[in-house]
Amino acid sequence: MGTQGEGIGGFQTDEEDGRIRHLLFSARGVLVDWNPRKALAGQYPQGVIDMVLDPCDEWGIWRYRTLMNLGWDEERALTDYESTHGPAVAWVFRLYLERFALTITGMQPGMDELLDGLHDQGFTLWGLSNTTRSHARLAERKLETLGLLDGALISAEEHVQMPDSLFFQLALRRFGISPTQAVFIGDSPDQVEAAESCGIRSILFKGADHLREEILKLS
After folding, report:
1. Residue 185 bridge partners (DSSP)
2. Contact between 91 and 40 (Cβ < 8 Å)
3. Grouped pLDDT means (10 residues each) for the chain, 219 residues
4. Interacting residues of 53 by C-beta distance below 8 A, sequence separation 6+
5. Which of 7, 24, 34, 136 could be disulfide-bonded to 13 (CB atoms 3.0-4.6 Å)?
6. What is the pTM of this model?
7. How would CATH label the architecture of 4-34+105-216?
8. Max Cα distance, the chain (Å)
9. Are 163 and 29 in contact (CB under 8 A)?
10. How do the domains of the chain map onto residue ranges?
11. Is 91 helix (H, G, I), strand (E, B) or coil?
12. CB 186 within 8 A of CB 86
């Protein structure tokens, strides 16, 4: 094993010896199974839910979720959303945020066992999250397996999110690791491309079984 050097944020970095030590996971979509409709199910007719969660609405929920993921607080997002959609529709957004814990439906299939096995094998596990700190804490409380992560980078605290390559550069600095000793696992090609542009070997997530096979190829 290489000697230790001081990393940014108090972590230690290993001198490079070519061995993969660190696995960086995009939390939502790779670790966490997430269904936004669960927050509103049974509260409104399906047509209302479809309207509020419409990904094509330029000034819809997803625009404001992105802004929250970049550091806006909930009240600012709700006030701005209401200025476009009116108070009745804004109340639906508020209810969505109040019931957000229901959108966290569990770990992705098979990832409980895989994460536990990777931890036992000595990999250091990190989470990368396009989310707010409060929503990250909800996931941590609901999903015990996330406690295996050695740390996480939260977009709302950094004011930048995936797939911006700066987010991956910040992860390396915060965790004090070399890109040559890390592998990123993401659920979208643009995330993978951004991580690879920072010199991080990457895997596009296609399920726990596929990921297990890909990680075996690293050893």
Report:
1. 25, 203
2. no
3. 36 58 96 97 96 95 97 97 96 97 98 97 97 97 97 97 97 95 97 97 97 89
4. 36, 37, 40, 60, 61, 62
5. 7
6. 0.89
7. 3-Layer(aba) Sandwich (3.40)
8. 60
9. no
10. 4-34+105-216, 41-98
11. helix
12. no
